[in-house]
Design brief:
single chain; 163 residues; mainly alpha; two-stranded antiparallel ribbon; 8 helices
Length: 163
C-alpha cells in the first residue's frame, strides 16, 4: 500500500471560516482605521498645544530682569545665570554689587541693590529679545535713560507697597 493521506490533510481550508486558516486575516488597523487615525491626530494636536503653551512662558531670567520676583529672588536667578557661563563660573555675587556701584555716576546704578539695575532684556525691531548689560560708558552717553526712569519708578512703587 502506498502512502495514504488522511481526508483532513487533503481538504483545503474553508474561506472566511474562523479557525480554518492559521494566518490572521484581520488586524486592528484594517478593522478600525478611522479610530486609530483619530487617536493619533488627537495625540499630535495635544502634544503641539502643550509644547506651544510651554514655549510661550517667559524664562525665569527674563522674569527676574523684569522684576517679577522679590529683589532677593531676582538677584539669585541672575546670579545663577551668570555662573553658568564659563567666564563667570567663579563669579562672586556678594562682592559684585559693591564693586560695580563705584563705576557709575548716577542712580539707579550707584544705589543698586538689584542686578536688574544694570541688566535688562530688550526687544529689537523684529521682537527678538536680547539680554543686555548697561556699562558705565552707556550711562555717560545716556543710552538707557528710559530704562533708568522705569527702574526708579518701579523701585519707588515697590517701596511704597504698590507694584
Amino acid at each position: 500500500m502506498g502512502a495514504s493521506n488522511s481526508a483532513v490533510e487533503c481538504q483545503l481550508p474553508k474561506l472566511k471560516v474562523a479557525g480554518s486558516n492559521p494566518v490572521s486575516r484581520s488586524s486592528f488597523l484594517s478593522t478600525h482605521p478611522s479610530r486609530l487615525r483619530l487617536r493619533l491626530r488627537r495625540l499630535a494636536f495635544l502634544s503641539l498645544t502643550l509644547l506651544s503653551i510651554l514655549g510661550c512662558r517667559a524664562d525665569p531670567l527674563e522674569r527676574a530682569l523684569r522684576g517679577d520676583f522679590l529683589p532677593e529672588v531676582n538677584n539669585q536667578v541672575v546670579f545663577g545665570y551668570c555662573q553658568t557661563c564659563h567666564i563667570h563660573r567663579a563669579f562672586e555675587p556678594s562682592a559684585h554689587l559693591g564693586l560695580v556701584r563705584a563705576l557709575y555716576d548716577r542712580a539707579p546704578y550707584t544705589t543698586a541693590s538689584e542686578c536688574r539695575a544694570c541688566h535688562l532684556v530688550a526687544e529689537d525691531t523684529w521682537n527678538v529679545k536680547h539680554r543686555k548689560t548697561i556699562f558705565p560708558a552707556d550711562v555717560v552717553q545716556n543710552r538707557y535713560t528710559a530704562h533708568e526712569r522705569r527702574f526708579l519708578k518701579q523701585q519707588a512703587e515697590s517701596s511704597t507697597g504698590r507694584k
